[in-house]
Amino acid sequence: MFSLDLGDGLRLTLAEERHAGAITELMVRNQARLALWQPWAAYRPTVESTRSYIRGGLDRFAEGREHYLIIEHAGVPVGACGMRRDPQTLIADVGYWLDAAAEGKGLVTRAVTALTEAAFGTYGMRRVEIRTMVANARARAVAERCGYEFEGVMRRAMRFADRNEDVALYAAVERHP
Ligand SMILES: CC(C)(COP(=O)(O)OP(=O)(O)OC[C@H]1O[C@@H](n2cnc3c(N)ncnc32)[C@H](O)[C@@H]1OP(=O)(O)O)[C@@H](O)C(=O)NCCC(=O)NCCS
């Protein structure tokens, strides 16, 4: 199955149903901090709900629309990242999260750099976006370290159960016309 070896024990592996248990455990353990920044994390996942999401991701992978990838470090799942691609507009977007214990090592910066290169190189995208809550300093720092440009604030563009939050829009675009 699809897998990218980024060196030094860092690997991105297409999420398969066999990952559902480990990813659910990571999401449950990190739920409180993930839910601060990502609306989907408000809901406590079960192995079955994760398996169902992974199955959907595999369908979208087969359609050429998505990579939902497990971030593995030293052979252990430590988070996830994803790239969704629109084959009509040639615009992609990238998202990511890590286990708290895996923060501060540059893993996501390396993962997003590799995904961005694949988006432009392998998949011919013209634009790749990262959208984060304005207050999400760590997520914004990843976008900036990976060379994305801040394009502005999308006001109230992220829906949580009880509120809408402002979103910082970052994008990288192909270097030639
Ligand atoms: C957003 C998130 C993935 C960022 O994690 P992170 O560990 O800060 O990001 P990276 O993995 O790129 O690591 C960067 C850190 O490692 C350090 N680092 C060490 N080696 C590095 C290297 N080779 N390259 C880059 N940074 C390196 C950097 O200095 C930085 O540390 P600092 O923040 O103390 O300055 C994480 O905070 C998270 O999961 N948050 C909750 C979910 C979330 O908000 N997701 C994004 C929603 S859009």
Shape: globular
Task: Summarize the helix and strand pattern as letters.
Answer: EEHHHEEEHEHEE
If classified by CATH, what would the architecture be?
Answer: 3-Layer(aba) Sandwich
Helix content: 25-40%
How many DSSP-defined strands? 8
How are the strands of the biggest sheet laid out side by side?
1-2-3-4-5-6-8-7
Compose a concise summary of this entry.
This protein has helices at residues 20-29, 31-35, 47-62, 107-120, 137-145, and strands at residues 3-7, 10-14, 66-73, 76-86, 91-98, 127-133, 149-159, 164-173. The chain is an alpha+beta fold.
What does this structure look like?
29% of the residues are buried. By secondary structure, the protein is an alpha+beta fold. The longest helix is centred in the first third of the chain and has 16 residues, at 47-62. The protein is built from 5 helices and 8 strands; from the N terminus they run ββαααβββαβαββ. It has a single domain (3-173), classed as 3-Layer(aba) Sandwich (Aminopeptidase), CATH 3.40.630.30. It has helices spanning 20-29, 31-35, 47-62, 107-120, 137-145, and strands spanning 3-7, 10-14, 66-73, 76-86, 91-98, 127-133, 149-159, 164-173. Bound molecules: coenzyme A. The site of coenzyme A has 21 residues, from helix 2, strand 5, helix 4 and helix 5. Keywords: Acyltransferase, Transferase. Residues 26-176 form the N-acetyltransferase domain. InterPro entries: Acyl_CoA_acyltransferase, GNAT_dom, Ribosomal_N-acetyltransferase.
